[in-house]
């Protein structure tokens, strides 16, 4: 079972990493007016939505390989990950399936309350989602050892957790300006970093298990 979990964890981490990097690239292209509506919003919400399932599976896999005495922390991380998934999925699906199509039809007024704009309902949903992601990484920190490769994964999780206050400022500062996005852009480094480092932890687990099995089979053959 652990071998399957390690495989799922690895590939989920890679997919979450790829989707997160894609989102960050699209966000930059929008900021510098390389992309325009509706392509920019479709790509931003689409790539963001692609993060959700791999990230949930990544943290769930972490919970299943966590030693029993640390499962409280991994369980807390799973709970906050689910909260993240609920908030952001609701937002992105509404934007992609309702707001953007109605805007293109010229009937945005009918659904304007659903549009994600600064300090709107779904803006707050998005904020709560990424705050929950930060809390998930915060509560996962005690899961990792302070030595070996896990030390580096732990540091990546700490770095991402530390960006959570910056994310909160970006979303909840009374007057929003595009420049605020750069304050939270540290997330564009820390989020892919913790996802990728955790993915490689699962890969290392697979490799270590295979090495042990090969060693034992070699001894048996002698």
What this model shows, in words?
The protein has helices at residues 2-31, 39-65, 71-105, 121-140, 148-162, 164-172, 180-183, 187-221. The protein has one domain (2-208). The protein has eight helices and no strands. The chain has 222 residues and is mainly alpha-helical.
Number of domains: 1
Order of helices and strands: HHHHHHHH
| pLDDT averaged residue by residue | 93
Specify Rg, calculated over alpha carbons: 20 Å
- The coarse overall form would be elongated
SS field, number of helical segments: 8
Output the structural class: mainly alpha
Task: Note the main attributes of this structure.
single chain; 222 residues; mainly alpha; elongated
Condensed summary:
This protein is an all-alpha fold and 222 residues long.
Give the SSE map.
Elements: H1 2-31, H2 39-65, H3 71-105, H4 121-140, H5 148-162, H6 164-172, H7 180-183, H8 187-221
Helix pairs in contact: 1-2, 1-8, 2-3, 3-4, 4-5, 4-6, 5-8
């Amino acid at each position: 079972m652990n071998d399957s979990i390690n495989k799922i964890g690895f590939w989920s981490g890679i997919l979450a990493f790829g989707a997160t990097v894609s989102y960050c690239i699209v966000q930059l292209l929008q900021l510098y007016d390389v992309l325009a509506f509706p392509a920019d919003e479709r790509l931003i919400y689409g790539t963001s939505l692609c993060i959700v399932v791999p990230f949930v599976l990544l943290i769930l896999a972490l919970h299943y390989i966590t030693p029993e005495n640390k499962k409280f922390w991994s369980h807390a991380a799973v709970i906050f990950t689910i909260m993240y998934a609920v908030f952001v999925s609701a937002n992105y699906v509404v934007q992609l399936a309702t707001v953007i199509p109605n805007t293109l039809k010229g009937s945005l007024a009918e659904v304007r309350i659903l549009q994600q704009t600064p300090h709107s309902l779904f803006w707050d949903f998005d904020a709560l989602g990424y705050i929950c992601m930060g809390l998930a990484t915060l509560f996962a920190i005690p899961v990792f050892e302070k030595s070996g490769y896990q030390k580096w994964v732990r540091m990546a999780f700490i770095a991402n957790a530390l960006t959570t206050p910056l994310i909160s400022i970006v979303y909840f500062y009374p007057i929003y300006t595009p420049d605020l996005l750069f304050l939270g852009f540290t997330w564009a480094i820390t989020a892919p970093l913790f996802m990728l480092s955790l993915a490689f932890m699962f890969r290392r687990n697979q490799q270590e298990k295979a090495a042990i099995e090969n060693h034992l089979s070699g001894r048996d053959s002698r």
